Amino acid sequence: xxxxxxxxxxxxxxIQAPMGWIARSQLASAVCEAGGMGIIETxxxxxxxxxxxxxxxxELTDKPFGVNLxxxxxxxxxxxxxxxxxxxxxxxxxxGDPTKYIKVLKDAGITVYHAVPSLEGSIKAANxxxxxxxxxxxxxxxxxxxxxxxxxxxxxxxKQNLDLPIIAAGGIVDGAGMAAxxxxxxxxxxxxxxxxSSA
Length: 199
Ligand SMILES: Cc1cc2nc3c(=O)[nH]c(=O)nc-3n(C[C@H](O)[C@H](O)[C@H](O)COP(=O)(O)O)c2cc1C
Known about the structure:
The protein has nine helices and eight strands. The protein has helices at residues 3-8, 25-33, 47-60, 78-86, 99-107, 119-128, 151-161, 175-184, 193-196, and strands at 14-16, 38-40, 65-70, 90-94, 111-116, 132-136, 166-169, 188-191. The protein has an eight-stranded parallel beta sheet with strand order 1-8-7-6-5-4-3-2. Helix 2 (25-33) packs parallel to helix 3 and helix 3 (47-60) packs parallel to helix 4. It is globular and about 40 Å long. The N and C termini lie far apart (31 Å). The protein binds flavin mononucleotide.
């Protein structure tokens, strides 16, 4: 079975990217209902609002959803603790070193994928014990690494070095883009910009 489907529990290996203020319950639950994996953002830093958004998800959908923990932007461990207590099953970490919270998340039985922009970052994440990678090419929107590596090159170089499941992100907007990254070795896709521009 496709490892991303197994890890997310969603019908399709299509992940809606976490995006500050945008990736809240309205968008995320609609994506979950359509068979993808909706992710709630926490990068806005609006901790109380984000906690409410996570709680509301179970009223809006009975499908699995996830939460993003952007490590550099977390002031303390309160969001991490909240995810554990709220029974969140899938987390993506990004913008930082996953080592910091991997143990507490894994001990709670949460599946953790870490977002990486480079082969070096992916090796560090693998050593930290993550379950999978969100591989973000320079084509992507949002907060980006200054090291610019194209998505197809990045996926293939990581595939040659690691056997972790890969969710590809950056510039994917349709089935052709999805097929291209699957051909390169990805098992799932994450789209941000495309979901910003959807009703
Ligand atoms: C407006 C915006 C905000 C974003 N905020 C986050 C974030 O909070 N955390 C994160 O891990 N990625 C964030 N990203 C990056 C996305 O997760 C994703 O990797 C990227 O959007 C993929 O490229 P695409 O926009 O071409 O689909 C953001 C992207 C956009 C466009």
